[in-house]
């Protein structure tokens, strides 16, 4: 046992632990700056948020030590069990009578509130690594890919049922793991297309073209479906791909252009009706090519086209009936459809003011006026990066981002050196989750991404998120320490 412990302390990656401690320390100082009021007790008083966060940090360090001391095989052996337990917790939380800020994602145990969604990320990463690490797994078999997608989507759907859409979106980060393990890039392409369809369709749905009948949003998306399908034919169908691509583009865009000109200058009508017919012809043509030339990829492109049409026509329903009212307003403000500086856009506007007021070098620790006067809502949780910008300025903000970039680069290095697929998949799951949180959180503070309410790792106040990120990281460090065994 002594030999094993000595070997563990020699093989554990201390550079990553040092980055973790540095980030947690910077995060604590940021919580101090965001939550401190003049005349408050000292930072170490447990009645203050700074004191409570310090307690969470101490518990996290103990938790990390315990995770390192456990046998690494436990994480592989009990991966499915841990995943199942968390699914039960997620399901049970849906019926939780305690509602916090419109979400039923919290379990309240006296003075302590825990969010199972934060720990479900670690459980999902373990289950995905366990499944994909099996000897029989292959990304080329659709049954294997369907099972892997189910592991990701089931907790995601349960979290959506808790009305915690922001935390559910984090699970999209797992698609980067699938791509690293050999998933075709066309799936990521389809995901990007879905985002484009949603943004363009929602943003320009109410704008009409010169004929007074045709919606710019629907016209643009239907045109993009034809163009994207033609590009996929060019990329993935090896036969007579250039003529087929030109047939699709020439016929689709040509008929669309003639219909638009007829509507603008002869008889006005909704050109989208013609585009729907063209998409139907496109789908039939792809099926014909698949049967005639016996090229399976035409079937996949057909599925892409029909899926794109179905997704687009479902976006309005999802936007109006699935998303919460405040989420709808946030997206409209982000897309420039509404100007609501005192409502949904208030957080972002105040955050921008706070960051901008910091200037190049910042106002100094505890000297931020916007944060001291509590102008920024959630300034010690989701919007804590604005505290960094105001007190430490541009230099401090860039320093924090570079620190996170170094941390993520280190995780990539650790993931790539794993000797097993289990370790590699889990490692990429960890870094993908950290990257998603960093990108979206900093982006929403700067007004570049929608405000979906996810924390900045190691910085945002709260025990659930800090413990969740700590478990994610230290389980990976324990797996990495045993890679050469």
SS elements, strand count:
2
Helix content: 55-70%
Low-confidence stretches: none
Strand content: under 5%
Give the termini separation: 15 Å
Radius of gyration over all CA atoms, rounded: 25 Å
> What is the string of helix and strand elements?
HHHHHEEHHHHHHHHHHHHHHH
Query: What's the shape?
Result: globular
Helix and strand content put the structural class at mainly alpha
Average pLDDT value? 85
Q: Describe the main β-sheet briefly.
A: 2 strands, antiparallel
Instruction: Record the strand order, biggest sheet.
Output: 1-2
The tally of helices reads 20
Q: Brief overview, please?
A:
This protein is mostly helical and 485 residues long.
Write a structural description:
- The chain is mainly alpha-helical.
- 70% of the residues lie in helices and 1% in strands.
- It has a two-stranded antiparallel sheet with strand order 1-2.
- Strand 1 and strand 2 form a beta hairpin.
- Helix 19 runs antiparallel to helix 20.
- The longest helix is centred in the last third of the chain and has 32 residues.
- The protein is globular and about 75 Å long.
- The two termini are 15 Å apart.
- The mean pLDDT is 85.
